Amino acid sequence: MEISLLEPIETPSLLGDLRLAMRAWSAGVTVVTAVNEGVAHGMTVNSFTSISLDPAMITISLQKTTRTYEYVSKAQAFGLTILSSEQADISDLFAGRKPEVQDRFAGLQTETLVTGAPFIVGGLAWLDCRVVQTYDAGMNTLFISEVVAARGTGEGSPLLYHNREYWNLSQK
């Protein structure tokens, strides 16, 4: 049996190779929000994973240089809204693709559950979380969090991100 090795992609660094490779990973889109000293902030995040149902726990990964990282670190709590396929504009807004917008929450309907973190109305599901542990992960921090409240039915179409574009699910 002959084994052939893949030729490496010609890019300037492993970081470039990794960015290209990760474009093949499809993920749902969420907005993570937190409140610090009465001011809300949030960002689009697709590095979110359910890690346990009992106890109810999830993890998110935030880059240490972001304002949302600072807010979540100080509040030790955050909200996570799983976006619907109709919310690509909201994803772009919280991803910073509309730099002219100063207040990302202006004009949006929000609600709160337990921690006071705002959730975006129209999302498919909401998870209200308290941070229980953090792990340094290079340029990011993993926030291991207890889900203290959750809302959502599983109904609706999720917003998906693949190869730097939004996609919709198609059913057979």
Task: Provide the CATH topology of the domain at 50-161.
Answer: Pnp Oxidase, Chain A
Low-confidence stretches: none
In CATH's first tier, which class of the domain at 50-161 applies? Mainly Beta
Order of helices and strands: HEEEEEHEHEEEEEE
Structural class label: mainly beta
Distance between the termini: 38 Å
Shape verdict: globular
CATH H level, superfamily name of the domain at 50-161:
Electron Transport, Fmn-binding Protein, Chain A
Query: Averaged pLDDT, please?
Result: 90
As a percent range, the share of helical residues equals: 10-25%
Cross-sheet strand order for the largest sheet: 3-2-6-9-10-5-4
Number of DSSP strand runs: 12
Strand content: 35-45%
**What's the tally of helices?**
3
> What does the radius of gyration come to?
17 Å
CATH architecture classification of the domain at 50-161: Roll
**Major sheet details:** 7 strands, antiparallel
Give structural attributes:
12 strands, globular, Pnp Oxidase, Chain A, 172 residues, single chain, three-stranded antiparallel beta sheet, mainly beta, 42% strand, 3 helices, seven-stranded antiparallel beta sheet
